[in-house]
């Protein structure tokens, strides 16, 4: 793993603790709001464990943030131009899923994220991660199977899907090569 990802993991651990403390929440309160065990949150905040994409989505949702916003706050990017080499990159320790926050931090209600999902990987995301947001998925390379509740969408390069109402979902790469897709998020509520 490269040092940029490692240092982001450390800043992400600190950011999760700061977000919790800024709200005056105990570890137990964050655990109850997120559905993540108190022990796991404690390990993540100490930097003893790196959160998976699913856990990070649950924690971000508890803070009423998107996963992208939480990662970007950890990176604290500034300015209207966010160069590729400066874009926050986070790697899911469980699947190797790589998430790159492409859009600069802004007061605009829009975020753009690029994801590389390794072959044979699946990343489940809880419905709570989609509250207060509208999302689109745009496949830029490869094939993606997106499971949205009971509905399954097979997406090929160039396909774009608007997500429906929040429900549990999964990003799945059934292919033999990595899949790259963009997630476009429009904030509709107040974080």
**What low-confidence regions span 5 or more consecutive residues with pLDDT below 50?**
1-5
Q: Terminal Cα separation, in Å?
A: 32 Å
Give me the CATH fold name.
Jelly Rolls
Overall morphology: globular
How can the largest sheet be summarized?
A: 6 strands, antiparallel
Look at the structure and name the CATH superfamily.
Answer: Jelly Rolls
Secondary-structure element string? HHHHHEEEEEEEEEE
**Count of individual domains:** 1
Mean pLDDT: 88
Please describe the topology of this protein.
Layout (H helix, E strand, L loop, with lengths): L2 H20 L4 H8 L3 H9 L6 H10 L4 H9 L13 E3 L6 E4 L8 E8 L4 E4 L7 E9 L1 E6 L2 E6 L3 E3 L6 E4 L6 E9 L4
Antiparallel strand pairs: 1-2, 2-3, 3-10, 4-9, 5-8, 5-10, 6-7, 6-9
Helix pairs in contact: 1-5, 2-3
Structure, described:
- This protein starts with a helix and ends with a strand.
- The chain has a single domain, classed as Jelly Rolls, CATH 2.60.120.10.
- By secondary structure, it is α+β, with helices and mostly antiparallel strands.
- The chain contains 5 helices and 10 strands.
- It is globular.
- The strands form 2 sheets. The protein has a 6-stranded antiparallel sheet with strand order 1-2-3-10-5-8. A 4-stranded antiparallel sheet has the order 4-9-6-7.
Using brief descriptors, characterize the structure shown.
Jelly Rolls, 6-stranded antiparallel β-sheet, alpha+beta, 10 strands, 191 residues, 5 helices
In brief, what are we looking at here?
The strands form two sheets. Strands 1-2-3-10-5-8 form a six-stranded antiparallel β-sheet.
């Amino acid at each position: 793993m490269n040092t940029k990802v490692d240092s982001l993991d450390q800043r992400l651990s600190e950011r999760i603790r700061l977000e919790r403390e800024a709200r005056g929440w105990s570890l137990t309160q964050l655990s109850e709001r997120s559905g993540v065990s108190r022990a796991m949150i404690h390990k993540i905040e100490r930097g003893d464990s790196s959160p998976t994409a699913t856990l990070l989505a649950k924690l971000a949702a508890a803070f009423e943030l998107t996963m992208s916003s939480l990662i970007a706050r950890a990176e604290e990017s500034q300015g209207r131009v966010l160069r590729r080499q400066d874009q926050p990159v986070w790697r899911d320790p469980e699947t190797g899923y790589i998430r790159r926050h492409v859009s600069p931090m802004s007061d605009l209600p829009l975020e753009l994220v690029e994801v590389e999902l390794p072959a044979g990987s699946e990343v489940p995301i809880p419905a709570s991660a989609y509250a207060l947001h509208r999302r689109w998925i745009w496949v830029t390379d490869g094939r993606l199977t997106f499971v949205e509740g009971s509905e399954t969408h097979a997406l090929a390069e160039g396909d774009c899907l608007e997500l429906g109402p929040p429900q549990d979902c999964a990003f799945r790469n059934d292919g033999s090569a990595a899949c790259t897709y963009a997630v476009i998020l429009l904030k509709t509520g107040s974080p």
